[in-house]
Amino acid sequence: xxxxxxxxxxxxxxxxxxxxxxxxxxxxxxxxxxxxxxxxxxxxxxxxxxxxxxxxxxxxxxxxxxxxxxxxxxxxxxxxxxxxxxxxxxxxxxxxxxxxxxxxxxxxxxxxxxxxxxxxxxxxxxxxxxxxxxxxxxxxxxxxxxxxxxxxxxxxxxxxxxxxxxxxxxxxxxxxxxxxxxxxxxxxxxxxxxxxxxxxxxxxxxxxxxxxxxxxxxxxxxxxxxxxxxxxx
Length: 233
Known about the structure:
Blueprint: H1 2-22, E1 30-31, H2 33-40, H3 44-56, E2 60-63, E3 67-70, H4 75-99, H5 102-120, H6 124-140, H7 145-156, H8 163-169, H9 172-187, H10 191-203, H11 225-232
Antiparallel strand pairs: 1-3, 2-3
Helix pairs in contact: 1-3, 1-6, 2-3, 4-7, 4-10, 5-6, 5-9, 6-7, 9-10
């Protein structure tokens, strides 16, 4: 009985995180446990417990006697999260590709296909959750559990407010298909191609998926020789 309750709580927490990432739970709006429970078809208790988990993670905050409100990260915070994800996920995905077996790829391919199906059905909650599972399972092949956990936390703090429009326009399917392409590149041992694709894929997070134009990743300006000379004076 206790394990079943924990399972429901975990499932609800994943769904709530996905709703936050997809922008279906908007900052400023208050959500009550009974209302959310009715949407999920469960009792309010696991929903309340899941929301308290999200409070600890800083994803929502409590509103006394009313419910919970989603927190709103700044654009700078979201840019920083994306930059960190690029630094972590790109090399680790390439490393994972180097050790992936045929059995690993066979296990990952249905996960990638479910992402495509969720995009086709315009089910953003399923899309975000299946996307999370796929990438974390792929990264796990590299053998660094702490990094996988950190990336999972960073993904939960991302906000993809542009997904609704992309799904409505049918453009989300092409992004979803990139997951199948990743597996094809791994099977072909094309690590350079995989690296380029992963960089572009994560770049969507602050581009089209966020409701913006795609843009190159930020680069810190390099000091000119003159500026370097002045700094030494």
